[in-house]
């Protein structure tokens, strides 16, 4: 419950406060958000499976974000940033889908 | 079922959903311990997850804590991670036997299906370390999500765009600007041209109208007014003949008369004079004395031209006619002739 509240508060804060993101980080924000989403879905699934561990969640969340941003950063340096970020999004999307499928089985039993 | 589960529980985890017939294969794969979920977060199996869950459950409240602990102890290590099926079948209680307190509702305290876990996690809200940390991370996620959505919807797509993309966009914009500039120049040229040509057309129309008026004055198809003289020939003896009037007209023309009217008959290039009993015919129309000439022209030229010695006035006076010449600032020549369309002659100018 508190976690859900945290998400809602975050969205509201982002909409209301309108923080300025440093230009350097801006290109990596979308990919980082997708990576974080992946981590959240994984965490939700783990919770439904009953094997949730906050430490693992924190580590996976942060590492997901960092690695995703790193890949895009590297891609930018190599000149294939657009393609690489597409790839990252595809991979993360697939994972999100499979996690969502598992969550669905738990919640709807179907 | 319960027996089967019991046998399995120490070593391998049974399927999480007991009644799942066709879905059980999937469920086993995904919910079982050996296979972590694809999102690796929190999915690590093994011993370390058990303490975490156990740690969270005591915090739920005193009563709950007692029960769940008892439950956990009673079932021992292997049964801890076992899924809901066991609880539903009350296997642990049977095994525990002496656990009187936890006996009535063990599954309510330690739900084993995903739904129950979800419900328990959502309500009632509990302040635990895990919840707080997850809340913090989700706050960060929500923040990033909101920022990204807002910046995407607000500042077009340029704000998070990459450098090469920006360069490409800039190039495209430059090209487009150049194209539009060219087009603008073209259109402006066209506009100037059209304006000029329409000006020219207007000018031409004006000149044409003016010319038409001038020609109309000469051809007698329009009225005219201006300075000039009025020549009146009173001829009681009927001595004035057509040739005298013609002389007068020619004299006036030679002096620069521009429009002439005799007794309401307009005098033009084709005008002819002929004698007729008791008067003169001008263009076939009979006129009689007094002959009144309305002449537009420069009075200072016309008057002396008539009055020169041996000129019109003297000749007429010799014939006993009474001639008076009066200069006027405003002479109106309003007798008109209809323009006659030539039968054979055609304009040779384009």
UniProtKB/TrEMBL annotation, chain A:
Family: Belongs to the sbp family.
UniProtKB keywords: Cell membrane, Membrane, Transmembrane, Transmembrane helix
Keyword Phosphoprotein: no
Pfam families, per the entry: DUF1290
Cell location: Cell membrane
Name the UniProt record assigns to this protein: Membrane protein
Superkingdom field: Bacteria
Membrane topology annotation: Multi-pass membrane protein
Keyword Transit peptide tagged: no
Segments crossing the lipid bilayer: 29-48, 55-74, 80-103
InterPro entries: DUF1290 (IPR009709)
UniProtKB/TrEMBL annotation, chain B:
Region (Disordered): 1-117, 183-210
Pfam families tied to this protein: DUF881 (PF05949)
Compositional bias of kind Basic and acidic residues: 61-78, 87-99, 183-194
Entry keyword annotation includes Transmembrane helix: yes
InterPro entries the UniProt entry points to: DUF881 (IPR010273)
Residue ranges of the TM segments: 132-149
Superkingdom classification of source: Bacteria
Annotated keywords: Membrane, Transmembrane, Transmembrane helix
Family under the similarity heading: Belongs to the UPF0749 family.
PANTHER family linked to this entry: UPF0749 PROTEIN RV1825, UPF0749 PROTEIN YLXX
Name this protein carries in UniProt: Membrane protein
Native organism: Streptomyces daqingensis
